Amino acid sequence: MTAHEIDYSIYGEEMQYVEIELDPNEGVVAEAGSFMMMDNGIQMETIFGDGSQNDSGFLGKILGAGKRILTGESIFMTAFYNNLSGKRKVSFASPYPGKIIPIDLTRFGGKFICQKDAFLCAAKGVSIGIEFSKKLGRGLFGGEGFIMQKLEGDGMAFVHAGGTMAKKELQVGETMMVDTGCIIGFDQTVDYDIEFIGGIKNTIFGGEGLFFAKLQGPGTVYIQSLPFSRLAGRVLASAPRGGGKDKGEGSILGGLGDLLDGDNRF
């Protein structure tokens, strides 16, 4: 194996975290900001690119950093190494409510394609790159643009799903329609395209967007019930306007309650 062979445990329900057990000389790479806790003695290092074998040498580091810029991520990642004689543990937390999904890349033919913000952490040696869409419709209307993220190698990687995760095993020729934001990732054998909903009423009044993702097997597909974009949209829509506290929320009077409140003066 070119990637480090790590052991792990996943804890929690709604807000999960993954605990990685590192043997001597083993390491793990993670997105900046996902670190939760670690045992004393683990060495932490900020690296340029993803730190994989494909990222070796100065030119490789530049290309690796450039790939991460295209996916909208930071050009830096954080690596954690166990350089001591005993086992050490390091943990990484979910960025928002959902599930952490372990991906054994050897079971996916060494490659897994996912949304560009789904990656959480991976064994040292796994390459975190970009997957360009070759189809115009997918790039323009797929919600993720022309670029998705790809995880390559023979080690363990961990991705995050918002809300509840659904795993679907598509047979040869079997298709399913999915909201574009609800896709976490899929097998490299899955064909992914965008399909227009159609119909004037659906287009104007449907409220579900104009395009669905069409996934065709064979292969495995992971779907999330709560994309971060949907969660953020609901939070913004519920935020009080003007930066003040919405005192009428949940009351019978509603907005009239604000007018009658003692803090409002004419």
Describe the structure.
The chain is an alpha+beta fold. The protein has one domain: 4-Layer Sandwich (Double-stranded beta-helix). It contains five helices and 19 strands. It has helices at 57-70, 136-141, 200-205, 228-238, 255-260, and strands spanning 7-11, 17-22, 27-30, 35-38, 43-48, 76-81, 88-93, 98-104, 111-114, 119-123, 127-132, 147-152, 156-162, 165-170, 175-179, 183-187, 191-196, 211-216, 219-224. The protein is globular, with a radius of gyration of 22 Å. The relative contact order is 0.15.
Fold topology:
Blueprint: E1 7-11, E2 17-22, E3 27-30, E4 35-38, E5 43-48, H1 57-70, E6 76-81, E7 88-93, E8 98-104, E9 111-114, E10 119-123, E11 127-132, H2 136-141, E12 147-152, E13 156-162, E14 165-170, E15 175-179, E16 183-187, E17 191-196, H3 200-205, E18 211-216, E19 219-224, H4 228-238, H5 255-260
Antiparallel strand pairs: 1-2, 2-7, 3-6, 3-10, 4-7, 5-6, 8-13, 9-12, 9-16, 10-13, 11-12, 14-19, 15-18, 16-19, 17-18
Short note summarizing the structure:
The protein has 266 residues and is α+β, with helices and mostly antiparallel strands. The chain is built from five helices and 19 strands.
CATH superfamily: Mitochondrial biogenesis AIM24
Strand neighbour order, sheet with most strands: 5-6-3-10-13-8
Task: Please describe the biggest sheet, giving its number of strands, its sense, and whether it closes into a barrel.
Answer: 6 strands, antiparallel
What gross morphology would you assign? globular
Would you identify the CATH architecture?
4-Layer Sandwich
Tally of distinct domains: 1
**Tell me, what is the CATH class?**
Alpha Beta
Structural class: alpha+beta
Instruction: Show unreliable segments.
Output: 247-253
Question: What is the alpha-carbon Rg in Å?
Answer: 22 Å
Binned, the helix content reads 10-25%
Mean pLDDT, all residues:
77
Tell me the β content.
35-45%
Order of helices and strands: EEEEEHEEEEEEHEEEEEEHEEHH
Beta-strand segment tally: 19
Q: What is the terminal-to-terminal distance?
A: 73 Å
So how many helices?
Answer: 5
Protein name: TIGR00266 family protein
Organism: Algibacter mikhailovii
Pfam family, one: AIM24
